[in-house]
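Protein modeling request. Please complete all fields; requests missing the sequence field cannot be processed.
Requester role: graduate student
Desired output: 3D structure, token encoding
Chains: 1
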Amino acid sequence: MRALVYTGPNQMTLTDQPVPEPGPGEVLVAVHAVGICGSDMHAYHGHDDRRPAPLVLGHEAAGLIAAGPREGARVAINPLVVDPDCPIARAGRPHLSPTRAIISMPPRPGAFADFVTIPERNLLHVPEGLSLQDAALTEPVAVSWHAVRIGLAKLDAAPARVLVQGGGAIGVAAALIARHLTTARIDLAEPHPGRRALLAQEPRIESFDPRAHDPGESAYDLIIDAVGAVATRRDASRLVRPGGVIVHVGLLPGQEGLDIRRITLQEITLTGSYCYTPEDFAAALDALAKGALGRLDWVEMRPLSLGPQAFADLDAGRVDAAKIVLDLAHNSA
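Delivered output (333 residues):
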């Protein structure tokens, strides 16, 4: 089978590998579409000790069950593999379980390949009418769904204004989800002009360059920081209203930027958001299937054969799209 392998810092190589063998309780999935995540880019740069080369990356995937009783079923892959008997998992928070593992980290190869193995319990049926290419967005959309959901749950009132920081896939999806779940005005702060333009035709969402426009102190009830940089933490600390909520979902390095004094004196809630629950994953897939998140034209499709170039283009900032999805629809062993 074809496999796109991370072979060293800034190196992705298309190779031929054996088709993996499913373990107990697992199935073989023929991957039809897989997204490139920010964590894949982090590994590509050689900055993720959890993903040592050589390794097949990729965890945002959808495809067809390749063998077994459900052969041919269209499925979205929940890449988080957790011991279902873990007490934290049984308490409803499997994404925080110390047993969690994810495809694209050893010992589980990822989905930048024609085939991947995954426990059958991690597969969700893709409804008719939703393409497998769009179904591959379920994982990043679930990340955003979880962040928006917990942010809304911590607010003391329905939000009138929501700010999303960052126009990558997580930020774009968060803006669309916030619009879907609330009646609030949604602002998206993004310095890249191409990404600011992605949602230009979407109603009730406005984009601005945070370097050129200041909405003013206390402007927002809820802020989703989908960047996690010093500058976005600093802006969020100032722009959120007293009693408001900041959800920190971005994973850039560093800890600086938060105004802890203002957060304390104004009783601002600051919460982290990591991954998603199975319920969030199912809700994200359902929203995609129902067309609740708009046109999805913020995605760029490329064939797997152009995967190395896709990584290089992302690294060089030559991509306006919020997400590149690699198309493997013509699988071969």
